[in-house]
Design goal:
Cofactor: K(+)
Order of helices and strands: EEHEEEEHEHHHHHHEHEEHEHEHEHHHH
Radius of gyration: 29 Å
Keywords: Cytoplasm, GTP-binding, Hydrolase, Magnesium, Metal-binding, Nucleotide-binding, Potassium, tRNA processing
Largest sheet: 7 strands, mixed
Number of domains: 3
Strand content: 15-25%
Number of helices: 16
Domain TrmE-type G: 223-382
Subunit structure: Homodimer. Heterotetramer of two MnmE and two MnmG subunits.
Structural class: alpha/beta
Helix content: 40-55%
Number of strands: 13
Protein name: tRNA modification GTPase MnmE
Distance between the termini: 20 Å
Shape: flat
CATH class of the largest domain: Alpha Beta
C-alpha cells in the first residue's frame, strides 16, 4: 500500500529545549535531502538506516540557513509506520518549529491529518486497531495503572486474546462446513453439535471474563466521575483543594460562594478521579445560585462516586437527609468535616442513614483525614483486585460494546444448537460473533469508523 509523504509537529507547541518534526512516506528521505546540509556533505539517501546526523536545514533555492538540527533517518519497514521516516530535532519554540515544518511542506510533504501516522501503522499492518487506540490511551493516561493497561494493550495483550477466540470460532465454523458438505455421514452431525457447543461455551466464558474487568478498565481510562456533594459551607471546595493540592476553588465562610461546578483531574492512589465541586444544594431565591444548584443536580445524575460532605459542627438537617435519600442507590463515601470544631451532628443518625457505606472524619483546615479518605476511595474500587499487569483489562467503550454484542450472539448460537436448530442456521450466529470480535482489532471494521477513530488523535501522532 503506497501513500504520499506526510509531515507534522510531533511535540507539544510552546517553548522547550527541542521540538520534533516528523516525516513519513516514500519521499521522506528525498525531501530531507533537499533541505538538509551536513558538514561531511553526505546525501541522506546513502547513509545507513537508524542513524542520527548533525547539520543545518536550508532553503534549497537560496541556501539560506533556516535551523541547526539533528536529523534521525529510519528506513521502512522497521519504523512506526513501516514507511521511511525522518525526524528533525530542532530548537523548541513556536517560530523555529513552524519554520522547519513549512520548509518540509514546501518541498514535497503534505500536512498530516490527526492520527495519520498511527493510522498508517495500522493500515500497513504493524499494529491492529485495538493497539492503535491504545496509543492514545497511553498519551492520555493519568495514573501508573492506566499507563500499564495501555502498555499491555499496545503490546497486543488484548489482540492475542481476541485472536484466540476468533480462531476457536473459525475452527467451529470449519467443522460446520464439513457437516454441510458431507451430509451423508450421520456421525459428522453428532460430532459437530457437541464440539460447537463446547467451543462456543468457552468463548462465552472468556468474553465474560473480559467484561468483568471493563468497569475498572473504563475507570482507569476515562477517570471516575466524582461529585463532591453537600449543603453550602460544609467544606466542599476545601476538599477539592486538598485532593488537588492546589487552591482551585474559592473558600470563604459565606454560604453559597461556589456558584458553578468546577472540574479537576486528580490521581488518588492509582484511581484517576474527575472531581466535580458542585454548588451547595439548597433552596435559594438567588437566580445565579439557583442555576448552580441545578447544574449540581445534573452532575449528580452522571456521577460514578459521591463524596458526601457533612458539617461536624452543625446539626443534621432535613436537607441532609433528603440528600442521603437521593444518593442511596449510588456509590458514596460520607465525609464528616470540621472535626476541629465542637460537635453538634448526630453521629448515630449519620451511621444509620449511611448503612454499609464508608464514613470518614476530616478537618480540612488542619489537613487531617485526607489519607484515610484516599484509602477509602482506592479500597472502594480496587480492594482485593488483581493488579492491572495480571489481567487483560478492557477499557475502551467501543470494545466493551462489541464484547456485549458478541456475548449475545454466541449465547444465541449455544441456545439454538441445544434446541436442535439445524447446524447451518447455528452457523449464522457463530459467524456473526467472529465478525463482531474482528471489529475490535480492525479485521472486519468499516473504513468510516477507522477514519472517525483516528480523527480523535493529536496531529503529530
Amino acid at each position: 500500500m503506497e501513500f504520499d509523504t506526510i509531515a507534522a509537529i510531533s511535540t507539544p507547541m510552546g517553548e522547550g529545549a527541542i521540538a520534533i518534526v516528523r516525516l513519513s512516506g516514500d519521499e521522506a528521505i528525498h525531501i530531507a535531502d533537499r533541505i538538509f546540509r551536513s558538514p561531511n556533505a553526505k546525501k541522506l539517501a546513502t547513509v545507513a538506516s537508524h542513524t542520527i546526523h548533525y547539520g543545518h536545514l536550508v532553503e534549497p533555492k537560496t541556501n539560506e540557513v533556516v535551523e541547526e538540527v539533528m536529523l534521525s533517518l529510519m528506513r521502512g519497514p522497521k519504523t512506526f509506520t513501516r514507511e521511511d521516516v525522518v525526524e528533525i530535532n530542532c530548537h523548541g519554540g513556536l517560530v523555529s518549529v513552524n519554520r522547519v515544518l513549512q520548509l518540509a511542506l514546501t518541498n514535497g510533504a503534505r500536512l498530516a491529518e490527526p492520527g495519520e501516522f498511527t493510522k498508517r501503522a495500522f493500515l500497513n499492518g504493524r499494529i491492529d486497531l485495538s493497539q492503535a487506540e491504545a496509543v492514545m490511551d497511553l498519551i492520555r493516561a493519568k495514573t501508573d495503572r492506566a499507563m500499564n493497561v495501555a502498555l499491555g494493550q499496545m503490546d497486543g495483550k488484548l489482540s492475542r486474546l481476541i485472536g484466540d477466540l476468533r480462531q476457536a470460532l473459525l475452527e467451529t465454523l470449519a467443522q460446520v462446513e464439513v457437516n454441510i458438505d458431507y451430509p451423508e455421514y450421520d456421525d459428522v452431525e453428532e460430532m459437530t453439535i457437541p464440539v460447537l457447543v463446547e467451543k462456543c461455551t468457552w468463548v462465552q466464558a472468556e468474553i465474560a471474563k473480559l467484561l468483568q474487568t471493563s468497569s475498572q478498565g473504563k475507570i482507569l481510562r476515562e477517570g471516575l466521575s466524582t461529585v463532591i456533594l453537600g449543603r453550602p459551607n460544609v467544606g466542599k471546595s476545601s476538599l477539592l483543594n486538598s485532593l488537588v493540592q492546589e487552591n482551585k476553588a474559592i473558600v470563604t465562610d459565606i454560604a453559597g460562594t461556589t456558584r458553578d461546578i468546577i472540574e479537576e483531574y486528580v490521581n488518588v492512589r492509582g484511581v484517576p478521579l474527575r472531581l466535580v465541586d458542585t454548588a451547595g444544594i439548597r433552596e435559594t431565591e438567588d437566580i445565579v445560585e439557583r442555576i448552580g444548584v441545578e447544574r449540581s443536580r445534573e452532575a449528580l445524575r452522571g456521577a460514578d462516586l459521591i463524596l458526601f460532605v457533612l458539617n461536624y459542627a452543625d446539626v443534621l438537617t432535613a436537607e441532609d437527609e433528603r440528600l442521603f435519600e437521593t444518593i442511596q442507590a449510588m456509590d458514596y463515601i460520607v465525609i464528616i468535616n470540621k472535626t476541629d470544631l465542637p460537635p453538634k451532628i448526630d453521629l448515630a443518625r449519620v451511621k444509620e442513614l449511611a448503612g454499609n457505606h464508608r464514613i470518614v472524619t476530616t478537618s480540612l483546615l488542619q489537613e487531617e483525614g485526607i489519607a484515610e479518605l484516599e484509602e477509602a476511595i482506592a479500597a472502594l474500587f480496587f480492594e482485593g483486585q488483581i493488579e492491572a499487569g495480571d489481567l487483560t483489562y478492557v477499557s475502551n467503550a467501543r470494545h466493551i460494546a462489541l464484547l456485549h454484542q458478541a456475548q449475545a450472539t454466541v449465547a444465541d448460537a449455544i441456545e439454538a444448537a441445544q434446541a436442535g436448530v439445524p447446524v447451518d442456521m447455528v452457523q449464522i450466529d457463530v459467524t456473526r460473533t467472529w465478525e463482531i470480535l474482528g471489529e475490535i482489532i480492525g479485521d472486519t471494521v468499516q473504513e468510516s469508523l477507522i477514519n472517525q477513530l483516528f480523527s480523535q488523535f493529536c496531529l503529530g501522532k
